[in-house]
Amino acid sequence: MANADYTSMVEVTDLHKRYGSGAAATTALAGVSFRVARGAFVSLMGPSGSGKTTLLNLVAGLDVPDRGRIVVAGKELGQLRDHELADLRLQTIGFVFQAFNLIAWQTVAENVGWPLRFSGVSRRDVRAAVARALERTGVAGRGGRYPGELSGGEQQRVAIARAIATDPQLLVVDEPTGNLDSLTGRLILDLLRALNTEQGVTVLMVTHSTFAAGYGDRTLELQDGKIVRDVSTPALRAVVGKDDAT
Q1: What is the pTM of this model?
Q2: Fewer CB within 10 Å, N- or C-terminus of the chain?
């Protein structure tokens, strides 16, 4: 692919996305463009229906835009074959969902290890990677338990462990504190920030919380499918107050 910017982890150019057809069609994104530097922590904010989760799914290769260009880690998603896109998702991108998306009948260790097993990693290497991921997320003693035996905060930590087990360059995170109490939410945000600052993982996070957005370096605010504000974290805190946890 020509003209890739290798200082950027994510490049989005003139992105458009609509759902439905005719008079019932809904515009999710209407010409969104931005870049995320490697090693950055960027938050996406906006009201319900603003397009932030759609944007996250497009960047992660889980959906396809109607028009526009998305480049992740120097690879243009629209030019990748299906198996190449699958490899990119497995090897480069880690996903953390608000609903955890853990498999109820698998143990914690099995949940964390399945992306690696799917990639053909040996059982020995899977065990080692799972152990590292559980240790890094603070749930090292939970490998033999099932998701239903864990608290919400522990389940979110396991979801993050699954996302980082493959050592991704990019972590896409959708409302990580949405189903958690405020104290547990702060612990999860501390963990994400540590992965960013200590491990160099680029983080792109959707959140409704100004407090959560303050953990990042930069916040993009969406409204009606467009970016209406792009501010650094210090500027955001000056406007809304760093202790605003709404």
Answers
A1: 0.87
A2: C
